[in-house]
Every structure is written in C-alpha cells, then in structure tokens.
Amino acid sequence: METSPTDASAKAQPLVVLERVEKRYGAFRPALVGLDLGIARGEFVVIEGPGGAGKSVLLRLLAGLENPSGGTIQLAGENLARLRPRALAQVRRSMGILPPADALLGARSAVENVALAAWVAGTQEQEGLRRARAALELVGLDVGRYGAAPCMRLASGQRHCVALARALVNRPALLLLDDPGVPLEPAQASRLLQVIDQFAQAGVTVIASRRADAAPAAAAQAWPARARIVRLHDGAIVP
C-alpha cells in the first residue's frame, strides 16, 4: 500500500516540539529556562543532568501534569496547555509514565496495580489482568511468586518494576520515564533498558531522564547507541 503525502508529512513532523519553554515556581530560581527542543516520532531521547537540573519538571510538563510558565509545548501538533481536561485525559492515555516515585497502591497486588492502568483506559477486566501479567513478566517480575503480593511488601526494585510495567501495559505511543534504572542493580537495570529499547524499535517515542551525577554503577548503564542525549544544567539545555 502506498503512503499518501499527508501520511508521509505527519511522520516527518516532530512528535514533540518545545519552543522557549520556561517554568517558574514563585520567586525561586526558574526550574526551566528557554527550552527549544524537537523530538521525532520513534526517537529515543535521554534527558541527562545533575540533581536539580529540571529533568523531572520537564517530564511533568510533557505529560501535561503542569503547564509551562512561558513558551509552548506541542504534542502531535496540539498545544498541551490549551487542551480541555477531557482531551488532555485522552492524550495521556497514549502515554506511559514512570514518575520519580512509583505512586503504587500499597494494599493492592502487583497485578492489580498494573491492571488498573488498563482498566482506566477502557480495557475489559480479564483482558486487563492478562495484559498486566504479560507486562510484569516482560520487565522480569516473577508473577507466580510476587504477582498477588501487596505492593507494600515488595522490595524497592520490585516496586520499580511494577511501576514500569504499569507504564507499558497500554502499549503507549510515548514513554516518559524518570530515571528508569534507579533503584535497580546494574544487571536488572540493563535488562529493563533493553525492554524499553524494544518498544523504541517498534516505533514508540521514548523520553527518559538520568542523573549525570549518579553512582558509578548506575552511570555505567548503557543507553542504546542511537539514543540522543540532551543535557540540562540549571534548567537550560547545554552542549
């Protein structure tokens, strides 16, 4: 089947466009200053910088959880700040988000925590449970042993895997991952980065963050060779 000029043009356009984006919180030093950035569909981008550089703030803005204080953020041609709540909720359903804290429901099981994301997106109960188990197995959690365990009883690395599985369960078009390799052992972090890269190779746009001043073991984690590194320092993009 031939690709129409309209389809080709849509694929050529960046999925994410930031123009002079700023974020301020009261009288404090701006968290982000004058960011200009374009990210293509299917691209793997790593936002790297020291603690306090603005990485998590940028990911929250991209998720539409906060609005910029200045400038614009466009996702697939839509200005996120101008979307109505219902439209923004629909856009978020196309995202998989791994926040800096896992935000899991401690009394719920690992499977339930992941399935909840599928159910909210409209998936039927049994299909949601099936997808949840598959996502947990993909990230390396032993579902037979830990799938029914309340998340409050899981180790921090296991909870992190549950949170990542939750981000993947709806087969997102865009993944926003805040420090996906923390707090994992190097071997486990490397495995999860391979899983994330599989999604990127399938056409998912991945935007991940990493602390540039991380511990040596974490800093040694290898990003895919094709990943583009964008460095932040004091809220600005630097060479």
Which structural traits does this protein have?
globular; disordered N terminus; alpha/beta; 36% helix; 10 strands; single chain; 239 residues
**How many H/I helical runs?**
9
The total count of strands amounts to 10
Order of helices and strands: HEEEHEEHEHHHHEHEHEE
Structural class: alpha/beta
Helix-residue proportion: 25-40%
Which stretches are low in confidence, meaning pLDDT under 50 for 5 or more residues running? Answer: 1-6, 215-220
Q: Which oligomeric state applies?
A: single chain
**Strands side by side in the biggest sheet:** 6-7-8-3-9-10
Mean pLDDT: 89
Distance between the termini: 42 Å
Query: What summary fits the major beta sheet?
Result: 6 strands, mixed
3D structure, described in words:
It is a single chain. By secondary structure, this protein is α/β, with parallel strands linked by helices. The chain has a domain at 103-171. 36% of the residues lie in helices and 23% in strands. It contains 9 helices and 10 strands. The protein has helices spanning 5-12, 55-62, 85-92, 110-120, 125-138, 143-146, 156-168, 186-201, 216-219, and strands at 16-23, 32-39, 44-49, 70-75, 78-79, 95-98, 174-177, 205-211, 228-233, 236-238. Strands 6-7-8-3-9-10 form a 6-stranded mixed sheet, with helices on both faces. A 4-stranded antiparallel sheet has the order 2-1-4-5, with helices on one face. Helix 4 packs across helix 5 and helix 4 (110-120) packs parallel to helix 7 (156-168). The chain is globular and about 50 Å long. Mean pLDDT is 89; it is low at 1-6 and 215-220.
